[in-house]
Amino acid sequence: MKRMKLLTVCLEAINLKEKKFCLSPFIDYQKLVPSIARVGLLVPPLVKSIDNGLMVISGWRRVLACYDLKIETIPILLTSAEATDLDLLVQVIEENVTTRSLSLAEKAEAISKLQQFGLSEAKIMADFFPRFSLPQKREYFQLLTQVATQGSEELKRFLHQQEISMEALAIFLTFPPEAQKKLIPFLQTLSYSQRREIVFYFQEIASRDGCSVEDLLKNKEILAFFDHSEVSSRSKSEALIEWLRQKRYPLITSWKKEIDQTLRELSWPQEVHLAYDPTFERPEIKVCFSFCNQAQFLFLLDKLKKIGERPAFRRLFRRTFEE
Amino acid sequence: MTRFDFKIIFIHKQALKYPLTARILARLQVPTEIIDDSLVIREEIEKSPDPIAAGKKILYLAQQKGKFIKPCPCTPRMIRCGYLIINSILGCPIDCSYCILQAYLDDPWITIFVDEDKLENSLRPLLKASLPAGLRIGPGELTDSLALEPYTRQAERLAQLFYRSSRTILELKTKTTNIDSWLDWPPSPNIVFSWSLNAETIAKEEEKGAPPVGERIRAAAQLAIRGHQVGFHFDPLIYFEGWEREYEKVIKELFALIPSKLIRWISLGALRYPLNFRKIILLRFRHKAIFASEMIIGRDGKFRYFKPLRIKLYTRIYEMIRDYGGENLPLYLCMEDEEVWELILKKKPERRKDLFLLFSPPVNN
Questions:
Q1: Which of B13, B145, B154, B337 is least crowded, fewest Cβ atoms below 10 Å from its Cβ?
Q2: Residue B298 contacts A where some CB pair is shorter than 8 Å
């Protein structure tokens, strides 16, 4: 371990433009401000001496919070001049992964920088993927490097704030930047599984219909989801998912609708629960109801018998398009 | 003749002593490397941007450490046909997008088990006269049975065993036209050559490295007219724009060249794949429309077409086969449930014996 020096320096000596070791695309330091205001800076940031001042290695939130509080001097740990960029980056990573979970955007940045500072793909996967809780898969390496090197600011910010499955991310990265930009606000309001769903629906509908995701986003019905300003973002996103689900599974959706329609037509009693296989693989239909006495039981049976004798009841058992 | 290019042959050091190793090396002039662990191949292949495609160019000659014969796992809750699989070659040089071997096999390269004596000893119990007629066995589930035949002559050796087998049927399932060496063989009711057929668009777009469907049918016809037993598998049937017209064209062509009385059986199976195959689609074929059809997760845990869609596909193909090929041709469904069997074939096998009867040699043989 190369020795570090504890010094007190003027905050202005720190060059905030130099972000060589910064992993976060967005540094949220506001929560730290009142803490430092109360008790001062407890842990000195790690800093390196460069030609035009000092460069932050780790401790960006602390430094920015001190700037906000207009603190003039702060304690710092000055790294050894012999430490290589790779040594310093490893220190940044270690300091962060031991105290919190890195976001996907930060993992991407760390992986890209490790490679940039000379580590091989195999070494990064072997030594750092377990530290990042990532499976040691080459496709993940490529994906995250792509995020770091080609991802837009919006994408990085989104990946810093939200989680998304790696499969969904792989697909999302194949969408053109403009399409990504349009979809990020929707993805932000949805749950982890819904994010996956929405990305897959866009990709699968585009593949099936032989169009691009961009073309799909020009669809008038989709554009309406972007325009409904009076509706909450979450409601809009959920409505968009439902619309996509129907587009993706038109047959299954229409069969389900037909069953609902038939049940309405038959005035199906609310107290009798009817369950059918939502995939329509199994032909069986189950009914379930509760009763407290013989009279209730016979009353419901009588009701169901009358429904069962109506021609529309047979529609519930439709198995082919021809029926 | 369908030929494939290979980049390298890895030989496990224990595989060096076998005659099949020598035969393959004599017929394939490609670089070789002797290894004592297949990890070497894995390391090599993982450098490739597409390890599955790269694996199709690599042969690995090794000893079979496990069992050579295994029952076909079929799929839960579906009617089983009792097929037995010969694990003599794992992997296939043809790169079909829908092929589940991409997810099923651990290794992306092609492994040839060269200990033929052990294979033959494993097969001997299946040659007994006491076994039920119509029991089928073949290597075609884990490889294309004839794709590597020009180099291995393994199918010929298997055929020699089954040639006089009293009841068990050896099925050599292929997409290739590698039949030249069989033309001079006398036919046997126990050896069935079968071809996977599909619509021409699907063959062209999804079966990279396989000959066009017309060539497959012509190869089958050459054997059929010489009295050899032939079968066909419309599997996977794929729902795409123009499917009806294109499948009809193939079926018409098939029966124009091969009279139905010369066809031992035809099977139908709609596109299906296990959940873990999704990772292959994402890595290799995410833009392919065939994987964006309306599919559900079936009772066997596999992605399948929405059932009414499957029934529509089967019904039309069944009608076409009956229209062009007549009513007597044995037809069966692969990995389908009782409801679909009854709707399409108007019957379902009550016992395995009923299915074996379907595959049994014709009476006039």
A1: B13
A2: yes
